Amino acid sequence: MWFGELIKLDKDFYQQDAKTVAKALIGKRLITNIGSKKISRIVETEAYLGPHDLACHSAKGLTTRTKVMFGPAAKTYVYLIYGIHTMFNIVTGNSDGQAVLIRAVEPVSLIKANTNGPGKLTKALGIGLEHNDISLLNNTIYLEDAKPVNKIITTSRIGIDYAKEWKDAPLRFYDFDSKFVSKR
DNA sequence: GGGACGATGTAT
DNA sequence: TACATCGTCCCT
Question: Does domain A11-175 have CATH number 3.10.300.10?
Fold first, then answer.
């Protein structure tokens, strides 16, 4: 239930499974205190379910990169892709390799650059590799509850054609009414 | 030690 | 549809 108050999402929220969190995150507020305070609204996410999900990095097992995903929920998982872009993820579940990728946000205040794609939003908000493995229960990056969106669309995930039978799993969610959902 | 390969974005 | 560019994974 949404009472119009700005309530920081807590550990219980993040400990739910990735699919539930991914869908619940649509419409939530993202607050970043990197350089300056920036407020945005999440409009597109993807769920990565764990080691059994071939599109999920934790399917590689416990490695230096994936160890954050195998740790407690409510932590950031930030990694570099194509040597160029950083991807911002949220660890969910119960230390079992789950995460949610934030694919697009809508600027609410103090954001100039485009945020309609996973690489673009990290650049606009200043999220880099140095923000990997930090708690979302502190103040650098955190989320607040918000009014539920009108209509959430579910589709298959983007850019994971290598993931065999997981390629078409309906694990991408976006706000039907947002103009900031990623292209492709 | 080294090669292949991306949860992308932009320009052609 | 070409390609930039580098951390990570795995040794093809």
Answer: yes
